[in-house]
Amino acid sequence: MPYELPPLPYAYDALEPHIDAETMRLHHGKHHQAYVDNLNNAIAGTEWDGRPLEQVLDNLDLIPEDKRAAIRNNGGGHANHSLFWEAMSPDGGGAPDGELATAIADTFGDLDELKRQMVDAGLKRFGSGWSWLAHDGTGLVVVSTPNQDTPLMDGHTPLLGIDVWEHAYYLRYQNRRADWLGAFWNVVNWPRVAQQLAAARG
Ligand code: MN3
């Protein structure tokens, strides 16, 4: 069973004006599709074909060396974008509640400090990568990863990732990554982030 591009859970123009429809169309339909296709091509014929992606990405050292880089980059790309689409919503923004709000307050003091740390992590990521809120097994952490690396590769649970590849923002924001990182909070889907936290805590 090959990996598949998940349908976008809203229309391409649903996140306007914060993310433009053309960016969404290319990002989902071309970039993410390419990660899926390249992952399927790389993993075909290995014992890892069809395994849960989280399991593959947490065991990269066991992948045949000639396939490892392609599976790392494209498997990571598939996992990262699958969560990214769900972690945004046309009804997003605002503030989290419940256990997620409590965890953020306990770890960061308040939501503004979490945002500040994630924006900072995204701005400091040289080149392409992601800014993350993750659960490391004991609590919440903000980290950034290069390329399509994911906290899954460290056995951690990604709760929320912001894509800072230029393809995520360049059409609307050009070189202004800080503007993209600021606008993102208008579409963040906190209930979906809370689901990830609940899963991480088992
Ligand atoms: Mn991307």
Summary keywords:
single chain; 202 residues; mainly alpha; 3-stranded antiparallel β-sheet; binds manganese (III) ion
Gap between N and C termini: 27 Å
Instruction: Order the strands across the largest sheet as they lie in space.
Output: 2-1-3
Number of helices: 8
Order of helices and strands: HHHHHEEEHHH
* Major β-sheet profile: 3 strands, antiparallel
Instruction: Characterize the overall form.
Output: globular
Radius of gyration: 16 Å
Instruction: Catalogue the unreliable spans.
Output: none
Structural class estimated from helices and strands: mainly alpha
Distinct ligands, ions and cofactors found in the model: manganese (III) ion
Helical content, roughly? Answer: 40-55%
Please state the average pLDDT score.
97
Q: How many runs of DSSP E, i.e. beta strands? A: 3
Strand content is: 5-15%
